[in-house]
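User
New here, explain this?
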Amino acid sequence: MNTEPATEAETHAVGDDPDAIEAETHAVGDAVEAAATAVGSVWPVHSFVTANPLSGFEDRPFDEAVTEAADLLGGRGYPRAATFRTALDEGRIDPDLLDAELTDRGYEADPEALLERLAGAEAERSADGPESPDSDAERVDRVLTKWLSAFLDEGQAEWSMPNREAGFYDAFRSVAPYDDEIPDEGLAGDLPGSPIEAIETALAPYPGGEWQSVFEAQFAALPGWTGLLKQRADDGGAWQSAYPITLEGYLAARLALADAFGVDVAPPSEPDGPAIEPSDEIADAFLSAWEATYRDELVERVAAESEARDGARADGGASGRPDAQLVFCIDTRSEVIRRHVEATGDYETHGYAGFFGVPMEYRGYDADVSVDACPPIIDPEHRVSEVPTDDDGRASRDRLASLREAAGEVVETLRSNPATAFSFVEGSGSGYGLALAARTLVPGRVYDLLDGADDAVPGDHEFCEPGVHDHDGAGEGLPAGMTRDEKVEYAATAFELMGWEAFGRLVVFTGHAAETANNPYDSSLDCGACAGNPGGPNARVLAAICNDPAVRAGLDERGIDVPDDTVFLAAEHNTTTDEIELYDGDVPDSHAADLERLRADLDAAREGAAAERAESMGADGSSGVRETERRAGDWAETRPEWGLAGNAGFVVGPRGLTSDLDLDGRAFLHSYDWETDPDGDALEAILTGPMVVTQWINAQYYFSTVDNAAYGSGSKVTHNPVGNVGVYQGNGGDLMTGLPLQSLMADADTPYHQPLRLSTVVHAPVDRVTEILADNEAVTGLLDNDWLSLTVVDPTRDHRAFEYEEELAWAPTPERTDARSEPRKAPAVADD
């Protein structure tokens, strides 16, 4: 946790002993930091990062964690009985596996009777309902969220909160005397000069041993706002640097308001331990059987392909150079387009984390701020900026940027200024009306017009490139660009992690982004590995690196032979429409025919993938491209695409294990070849990096589905964006923290996303995986506590599968039966 900024320094006196002051400050800070782990971090909605909302509970078993979280946060931990019944009726839960899970827990009753019992317990909980809210506590929340939204605003508000640059506590202290909603008496009427002193004053009646429990309950009262400020304080960044906020400052203001309104902050009585309800135990059995049914089918098919692949190698296998190789993000949406690309010709696809291994902070040519373009579990190490490649490009881009910026400022000023708003509406209302009517009545035509406008204006990729060719270290913070050794390392790591052995004439690094209109959660559809930002810039950076002659020489020194005629280029996959845009400005004329063929085949692949996606949303697949374009351009469309809904599996192995399988867009796919990784370093990087990130994504979808009110964000129809950082449901209150209903539900009562914990399948020797887990306690802890499962298909042991149990022990799975040729599909959805 970041230390308190100088503007919120702890300067109160504990006697006059400086050592006592420091000790008291550290004691409060330690208790605050420990209490804050109960609330998951929340990223700003403009850079939405999927994360486990119960991340602070991952150090305990899943069943205990969801019980404790329910007591603290009020959220459900398991799907409802109706969800299990649907899965059972559709054959998604194997009856034999279910019987085994129930028997292990001591239940012999018929599954239908147990579902009735589960439904009854749900009805009883619903009838009891939450306790009536304390009106005084509600007043605390109302005042506090008003000032939090004003302070944490990231550019939406026209009038800023006074004194923001001094930090939240000092800014709140300066406005509190003028807020008629805050009583003049009590601590809020005379706030101390430092937040630590305010906290100590408010908690003076309580023993120090209770303080952490008090802090935990106060953080849990508004988990959305708390999670946002927690993330901002931890992450730093431009907004935090300009307007700092700390957990201590927030607690001080909250406790002062509680004192002013007479709210008792005594901690709730501590139970002896988490009491797991019988209904939760039943639900856990159904969930485990559902997951085992999915996992066993996936493992059977991967093991069968492993054996077949081994036989093909013994017979000599296929040889020859592919027409092109495309590297996609491991995102589940890539699984769909990869199948269709491979079906169009002799193409080879690979899966790699969508930031392409380059931990960077990126700034577009005319962007106001930089964004992190790497997973939140790692820190950016380079500052990469987009620069024009020639003077004409710079002049053209500068003119466009200036015109756009000037026009935007004029429109925004006229629209939001009270003195000009009415005249602006009168003068421009007809134009706005026509635009709104077009977006409402003919969104597909609007998409065509916007797409045509993009084609008419030179795009970024035609005259701009990422500035990765220098390492001058200019500016503050991160170094600009990369050294030659750094670039060689990023290129080599990519090929080593994917088990790359040969290169085609064209190699395409394909990032991804979504296209949607009027959607506060649009960044949730972009690349999670790029912290909720488009992946195209990262693809362009790695392509530029690999085309560098000095880098190629460095790769050759590391035993990676890149042919002279191999050209690397970047692309971006639009996951809403399945269009793949190639950034091909640097492709030489010698490769024109290859490029033309690739472009035509990508268009054909788009047709098939878009049809598949349209059908999954209840639309006519025969007009898939048109339907996906309509959804991208329709400002009233609440479900432009499904995102990662349905995710349930993560396969780590050669593409040959899954290339002949339709995995229904439910599996993350990371390329890996155990035979090119004798030391296991590449596999360790995958298990400690991408697997952890996919578990975050999976947990966010799981909890947003099982209890959308507590862990999701409700319906988009009633979203109210606030401060460019989040959304309310209604006109105030706590920030919503997870995914909206339209990203998860087929209809009001039927989940489209199947809430299952992540099943990881790794193709490698089991002993190698054991050694890696032994060296990584954090990953082993997730497995031991049942937050995800891990199965290894061992090619050195007759392709047998071994399932991780606990404490580095494995159990061989039963002998395989014939794997199904196709997985069970998610149900199609009637368009709503």
Summary: The longest strand covers residues 506-513. Residues 399-456 form one domain.
